[in-house]
Design a protein that fits this description.
Number of helices: 16
Bound molecules: NADP nicotinamide-adenine-dinucleotide phosphate
Helix content: 25-40%
Number of strands: 17
Strand content: 15-25%
Shape: globular
Largest sheet: 9 strands, mixed
Distance between the termini: 40 Å
Strand order of the largest sheet: 16-15-14-13-7-12-11-8-17
Radius of gyration: 24 Å
Length: 487
């Protein structure tokens, strides 16, 4: 056990969708890592639920394949003894009595119901959890994204969940908030005297948030085509990142103190609608191209040769109408089949007001604070210094570079490791409150409506490129460029 990892109290964690991609690829490995670190008490149970007719042994065997590379088999076997499986259909009553008996009545025991299924099942699952008396004592429910596809459908889900679980029991997960760099943003901003005086429109020129993926939609085409990049990435993850950059200092890290401040940012976002959507947003869709050295098909081909109006790329310029941020653009860009898998926040400071250096010393670049969320989490602060040596004075733009893995010599924990145990601890600071989800939909909804009203198809871009050229024009029109971090 590391100094920072203390055991949590014993819990039952029930994963609906226990055989699905998210559970097998992310949730179970995260739990296994926490087990290896000694944080999961031996009396805790992890229960997978899905319709597939498996028993405990069958489920454990399938998980063994997924987890075996992580650590030696003996430890894995001990962990798997804490893992169980119950076949259930969220939409049918059969088997729920037995499941309730298996969970048992232990009002003092923490029990977490993690809904890692399609959101269409959330209402059925919560209804049955209520009907079969499973919401007892310290119960919590975790909702995976997407929570709805617009404000109305989000409200329907939240209302149905709210009939069974109170808001304080409801954990809406956004795994970006569990990333080390995002929590570090809080510490950088509010644990150092250096940044806060500069953190406003007088000193910050603009902010960029990029979430770029190299993968295409793959087998998730059916889900993705109903969503698109704005619903899948911008409405949730990217707005949450924007809030963490832009919020006022909360009075403490108490859950509502932080979430109240994020909500104010969401309420201050300037509307984007039919009147300005063409100037402030660019949507794209990838075509065939080259990704990671291999030829890849376009989005319509990946869907099965189907024409689609869904965007796989969005770039937009958001503005926050308050005293701190008036006039500071927040450029957001996300897409699939882009050249790099990278998520980062770049805060660019204003240029110095006057240069005292000869033109032949080189150009003065603006300071940038780059917060890298993936792949290699870390922080870089770009500064101008003198090139060392006795020659003429030459300016160099160099980063103060802190890769967390290098600096601390440990692999960074996956965001789910942190967040799953925060649910067990009952700490919702890094989870979205209902009013945040609603405010985010209130801002995103008119953009979707305006795109739909325009009737315009997304602009094509070649797989392996940085999206349509209009996305470059969006920022270059303002005399700025997307960060390339290559200086
Ligand atoms: P998935 O691979 O399609 O898994 C769905 C799971 O739900 C399976 O275990 C499936 O098993 C189960 N299921 C389906 N219908 C059911 C029913 N009627 N009753 C009980 N179980 C049922 O989906 P996923 O990719 O894991 O995603 C799960 C959720 O997480 C989705 O909301 C997704 O948007 C979200 N999410 C996923 C990722 C990711 O990386 N995969 C990332 C972020 C968010 P059976 O068919 O055997 O019932």
């Amino acid at each position: 056990m590391t100094a920072s990892s203390q055991s949590v109290e014993p819990f039952d964690l029930v994963i609906f969708g226990g055989t699905g991609d998210l559970a097998v690829r992310k949730l179970l490995p995260a739990l296994f890592h926490r087990f290896l670190d000694g944080q999961i008490p031996a009396s805790s149970r992890i229960v997978g639920i899905a319709r597939e007719a498996l028993d405990d042994a069958g489920y454990r065997a399938s998980l063994r394949e997924a987890l075996v590379g992580i650590c030696d088999a003996a430890k894995l076997d001990v962990f798997l003894q804490q893992v169980f499986y119950r076949p259930l259909d969220a939409r049918k009553d059969e088997g729920w009595d037995d499941f309730a008996a298996f969970i048992g009545a232990q009002p003092e025991h923490v029990r977490v119901f993690y809904l890692s299924t399609s959101p269409e099942l959330f209402v059925d699952i919560c209804g049955r959890l209520g009907h079969y008396g499973l919401n007892q004592g310290k119960s919590r429910v975790v909702l995976e994204k997407p929570i709805g596809r617009d404000l109305d459908s989000a409200n329907q889900i939240n209302d149905a969940v709210g009939k069974v679980f109170s808001e304080s029991q409801t954990f809406r997960i956004d795994h970006y908030l569990g990333k080390e760099t995002v929590q570090n943003l809080l510490v950088l901003r509010f644990g150092n005297a250096l940044f806060e005086p500069l953190w406003n429109s007088a000193h910050i020129d603009h902010v960029q948030i990029t979430v770029a993926e190299t993968l295409g939609v793959g087998h998730r085409g059916a889900y993705y085509d109903r969503a698109g990049a704005l619903r899948d990435m911008v409405q949730n993850h990217m707005l949450q990142l924007l809030c963490m950059v832009a919020m006022e200092p909360p009075s403490s890290l108490a859950p509502d103190a932080v979430r109240d401040e994020k909500l104010k940012v969401l309420h201050s976002l300037k509307p984007i609608d039919e009147s300005n959507v063409a100037q402030l947003t660019v949507r794209g869709q990838y075509r065939a191209g080259v990704a990671e050295g291999a030829s890849v098909p376009g989005y319509p081909d990946e869907l099965g040769n189907t024409k689609s109006n869904t965007e796989t790329f969005v770039a937009l310029k958001a503005e926050i109408a308050n005293w701190r941020w008036a006039g500071v653009p927040f450029y957001l860009r996300t897409g699939k089949r882009l050249p790099d898998r990278v998520s980062e926040i770049v805060v660019t400071f204003k240029p110095v007001p006057h240069s005292i250096f000869n033109p032949d010393a080189g150009t003065l670049s603006q300071n940038r604070l780059v917060l890298r969320l993936q792949p290699d989490e870390g922080v870089k602060l770009w500064l101008t210094i003198k090139h060392p040596g006795p020659g003429g004075l030459r300016l160099r733009h160099v980063p103060l570079d802190m890769s967390f893995a290098e600096a601390f010599g440990v692999q960074q924990p996956d965001a789910y490791e942190r967040l799953l145990l925060d649910v067990v601890r009952g700490n919702p600071t890094l989870f979205m409150r209902r009013d945040e989800v609603e405010a985010a939909w209130r801002w995103a909804g008119p953009i979707l409506a305006a795109w739909s009203a325009s009737g315009e198809a997304p602009r094509p871009y070649a797989a392996g490129s940085w999206g349509p050229s209009a996305a470059v024009a969006l920022i270059e029109r303002d005399g700025r460029t997307w960060n390339e971090d290559s200086e």
